[in-house]
Amino acid sequence: MRHPTLARMIASSAGSAAAEMAMVAPIFVVLMFGAVELGNYFLSEHVVVKAVRDGARYASRLNFSNYPCASASTGNVPGGSVVTDVGNVARNQLVSGGSPRLVGWTDTTTITVSYDCVTTNSGADYSGLYKGMTLAPTVNVSATVPYNSLFNNLGFTSTNLSLRARSQAAVMGL
Q1: 8 A C-beta contact, residue 165 and residue 91
Q2: Whose C-alpha in 28, 56, 71, 115 is 20 to 30 A from the C-alpha of 13?
Q3: Cα-Cα-Cα-Cα dihedral of 117, 120, 125, 126, to 10°?
Q4: What pLDDT score was predicted for residue 48?
């Protein structure tokens, strides 16, 4: 014996839209959160690149005596105050005080400050800041910052991703 109510329920398509939505909704949610996370990654990368550029610009305006060029060489900047100040400008936008540009960027050792002594063309007649110099310093600022995911609070932590940036500027002195 056939049951008319059961036959009507099997033939009905009233709930098919809800069933399709239930199947597609997780994909939409993953795509939405993935797009937000990707946007956060690119924003954080942009912030680190800008920070390193600001640090290099600040370091290039410091006195030539901070970058001793006795020979065409590469070296780390001597003296802790220059490295600390450049690191603070890059990380906090201020020489002292301020808050980090990125959440979690609290470690100042993520920033490296070095310099190169570039041989100038001895046949050229330099004027201005570089007059009489045979070696001109350029400063290099680089940073490797651990990426802070938006989903760290949800338990999806990953310490494998790092944001890296490097910038170079010619030292112009004071």
Answers
A1: no
A2: 28
A3: -30
A4: 94
pLDDT, tens digit (0-9, with 9 covering 90-100), for 132-142:
777 788 889 99
As given in the structure block, the two tokens for residue 174 are 């004071």
Chain length of the chain: 174
Q: For every residue of the chain, which 3-state class applies, written as one string? A: CCCHHHHHHHHCCCCHHHHHHHHHHHHHHHHHHHHHHHHHHHHHHHHHHHHHHHHHHHHHCCCHHHCCCCCCCEEECCCHHHHHHHHHHHHHCCCCCCCCCCCCCCCHHHEEEEEEEEECCCCCCCCHHHCCCCEEEEEEEEEEEECCCCCHHHCCCCCCCEEEEEEEEECCCC
Pairwise pLDDT comparison (83 vs 2), residue with the higher score: 83
Identity at 9, one-letter amino acid code? M
